[in-house]
Amino acid sequence: MATLTEQLTRPAVRLRGLTRSFDQRTVLDGIDLDIPAGQFVALLGHSGSGKSTLLRAIAGLDHEVVGSGQLTAPERISVVFQDSRLLPWRRVLDNVLLGTDGTEKGRAALDEVGLKGRERAWPNELSGGEAQRAALARSLVREPELLLADEPFGALDALTRIKMHALLRELWERHRPSVLLVTHDVDEAIVLADRVLVLEEGRIGLDLAIEPPHPRSYRDPLLGE
Ligand code: ADP
Ligand code: MG
């Protein structure tokens, strides 16, 4: 049994010696990483450096990685990808609620991401940014301890991306999940995160604390006061 102190100080994510290879090629080469509960971490790295592989491992989506090292992650994890992965045959609210109950929670989540009034819209009636807002609402409604996001704004135009940055930071400040945001956008990493990691040659090559206060304010123009 863990002591109370251990429970309170235990990191949300703890990796030791995590390794993953594809056909003899080592992509993750013994990753050691602790993410304290509530921390907002950005993970940078060149295309092909293994960012998505690491995220999938932490999400529990990669069965091969099990046993390669030590991997501890919270039970309630939400994942957001570059495409919203909304089911086209379900209305927005039904997508958000999928597998959960509590319509009111779903409505509240949609309200929080600026999609009030769009509950009955079909996914193909949403813009790219709105679809990602819905994806964030779908992740929120599950009250995740850890939010994993794999280049969630990578397909959006620059202006929409800025609005999404404001929204994500605001949601994080309100709900305080641990966040691991994969991105190849250095500005995005520095603006949003409290800590920036760079994945290089299968290891965490750089681990930088970003000092508060952040250089931006984060009010989402689509949200009310
Ligand atoms: P990133 O997200 O940083 O762009 P990935 O984690 O997607 O990188 O991929 C890292 C490397 O692992 C790439 O060379 C990719 O081709 C390889 N890879 C990822 N998934 C698989 C897979 N399922 N089968 C074979 N190779 C893979
Ligand atoms: Mg990737």
From TrEMBL:
Keyword Zinc belongs to the record: no
Native organism: Streptomyces aquilus
Xref: SMART domains: AAA (SM00382)
InterPro entries named among the record's database cross-references: AAA+_ATPase, ABC_transporter-like_ATP-bd, ABC_transporter-like_CS, ABC_transporter_ATP-bind, P-loop_NTPase
Molecular function terms, GO-annotated: ATP binding; ATP hydrolysis activity
ABC transporter domain sequence ranges: 13-225
Signal peptide: none
Name of the featured protein: ABC transporter ATP-binding protein
SUPFAM superfamilies per record: P-loop containing nucleoside triphosphate hydrolases
Entry keywords, A to Z: ATP-binding, Cell membrane, Membrane, Nucleotide-binding, Translocase, Transport
